[in-house]
Amino acid sequence: MIGITHSDLDGLVSAMLAGIHFGFEPEDVRFARPSDAQHGIIDIIGQEIVVTDLPYISGATYWFDHHLSNFLDKFEGILGVRETADSCAGILARVFEVPGYGALVSETDRIDSLDLTPEEIFEPYGYYLLSKLINEDFSEVNTVQFNHYLMSLMKDKGDHIGEIIADPLVEDKITEYFRMQELARPYLKQQMQSSNGLLLVDLRGAPSKIYTRCSFMYDPFVFDGGKDSGVMVRTYHPGLDHRETRFQVVKNPLIVDNSPNLDIGAFLNTLGGGGHPYSGGVTIDTGETDRVYEAIMGELRR
Fold first, then answer.
1. What's the half-sphere exposure (Cβ side, CA atoms, 13 Å) at 218?
2. pTM (2 decimals)?
3. What is the set of domains in the chain, with CATH numbers?
């Protein structure tokens, strides 16, 4: 048995908890993008699979997810649990009653539901800083290796975040993160445009993949020009060949009772993506960029 999960904090914690219950190790976990699952390009022939924090993958034995936009009637009857929750990890911790990870799961709930403060966005610390070390670009070999290492570390250390942060390899990643943050922030400010409550961040011309890392997604909300914006639309090419374009749409987590009254994940699902009510994404062929951009902007401006 193996796990397949999303390469973010919720994905890693969910797969770790599933592994504890079903008996597979962190090294037995593979990573996938939500769009890969939606488009059916993941090969799992001949293996028993537990999918966590992703859309359903055809042929999987168990499926656990908390993204309402993924719950289609055709998937009824599949083993596992699908329900709305702050995180997929929270579902697994409750269903499997795994002890020793209360703080890790509650912080994953908080981070995945964007219950964030200006202070931690501006200068990440604790579990939120840990989440920033996870690179969603798992095509890089060192990303997969670090994900497996971090899952093993969290499994061994439980709720002892101080010991996790003090691990030498994690400390190296933290140093690297803040170095990249120093490089990325001036470029992000340069690429920001604010108009009528919408914050547009166009990173399609980014000279390095450093600038498009999801680790820096929320940084524009703490800059002048971004603080009062209700929603951000972030655009970039996830691959070096620019064959695909990704749109991420995120409500400002620092504005209480944020508008617009739109379920972002459900709307993006109509365009081939998905996500949460307050954030989501869609990956498309670059030739479809103008059409999808107009659809997103038209919905946000309604």
1. 26
2. 0.90
3. 2-166 (3.90.1640), 187-300 (3.10.310.30)
